[in-house]
Amino acid sequence: MEINSSLSNINTAKYNPPVVQSNLSENNGVPVNYDQYVPGGKEHYTPSPKDAPKVFGAAGAAIGSNVGKATLPLGLGVAAGAIASSLFGPVGIAAFAAVGIAGGIIAEKKSHAGKYAGGMAGGAVGVMAGNAAEKINYTPSENLASATQNFSLKTLFAKLKDLNYTSSEPISPKEKEAVKQIIQPGDILITNEDSEFKFEFIEKAIGLSGNWVHGALVKDKNTIIEMVASGYREVPIDVSLNENEHIMVLKPQYKNPQEIEKTIQSAQQHVGKPYDSKMSLKSDDKLYCTELIYKSLKDGAPAIRIEPKSLFGFKAIAPDKIIESPDIQTAFSTGSSLLHNYLHKFA
What we know:
Elements: H1 4-7, E1 20-21, H2 52-88, H3 93-111, H4 113-135, H5 142-147, H6 153-161, H7 173-182, E2 188-192, H8 200-205, E3 214-220, E4 223-228, E5 231-236, H9 237-243, E6 246-252, H10 257-268, H11 289-300, E7 309-311, E8 314-316, H12 319-323, E9 328-333, H13 338-343
């Protein structure tokens, strides 16, 4: 195993790391704590009433784009049902309405017309509401103002068209260096990238935060083990640092280096396996990202407690449940917020 040389340098005592959050301040090149973190930003931002139109505009665009996506299929369904009623009476309404809705869904997926129209209309209404709020000296929170400071109706349509657009800043060089300084074999990286929102809203809908969506296990100072859409992979840590806008370093409370080694060996037993898109814990034939971490820890360090999320009898391991473990401590975090991350897609 390549990990033995790395393990010899590990402090065998239980970790008791300080929580180190970005924004970064100079302290011999190492990040230090801030009393308050601004999600999605690298500097503290002082809000004023002038930020209200941008905050309301971005929020309006976010709401409008989603309403628009639903309105086009429903509108076509209602129209088809009305036509069917006039031609065939009540009997044809349901069938033609279903056809209209299905056609609307297909049309929306291909053209995104509802999203574009709803987003632009929502953004315009939001700006008007923000102008009214500005007149009464309403000052948005620092976090909202920071996340939406780049909002503009002039550039909104281009942002709506770019499905991968985000104004979230990438992990900074100083943050990357901080992560590299503190990680050790057996640590866990919890990450989030803001270009797509495939899992965030699903997590939110089932009672989780939606702030974090991916996890990886640190093999050594330079390499991580993770499950991605293409399956099991071992990649340089720089891949994760460059792919994401948000990162958290977690340190499980291992009892000794042998537990760390066994945990990593357990993870490596799954080399070559595909990704489990059904998120099932019942089988090891396929795994998803946090399932790999959960099962590797269960095998290598069984005293570390991670409670699965249960919903209608279905159990899954979400990043939140790993973060919440009483036996796992946060050593570093850039912070991540579902609301602010999403608003960055419109600002």
